UniProtKB/TrEMBL annotation:
InterPro entries linked to this entry: Homeodomain-like_sf, Transposase_8
Organism name: Marinovum algicola
UniProt superkingdom: Bacteria
Protein name per the record: Transposase
GO terms (BP aspect): DNA transposition
GO MF annotations, alphabetized: DNA binding; transposase activity
Amino acid sequence: MASKKGQKKRFWSDEEKRSICAQTRAPGVSVAQVARRYAMNANLIFTWLRDPRFAPAALDEAETDTVFLPVEIDGASIDHKPEVVASPGSAMAQRIDITLSDGRRIMVEGPTALSAIVSLVQGLMA
């Protein structure tokens, strides 16, 4: 099947493939969800999962050394508590993907009030 006009074939580095395959191992996450996150076909991820170079089983040793570190944020304080529950008439989204100008991405999945996301982004920009 020929690709659509103007679309280029994407290239995934080995490290990206390992990262994408590792995301499928998270509890409650399906391969289809990960595929949608990267706008790709789930069959491609299943192909990578069968390849021993990218299979998450090879990553299990590295994951045992994973630790959580405390995070402290200095700077502007938030004067108000962000609204968690959407008020009647406010907009809700199931998935929000924001790409910042420096290439960083903010992804929020699940029912979320857009006003809460606006508060989050404003807090990050302060």
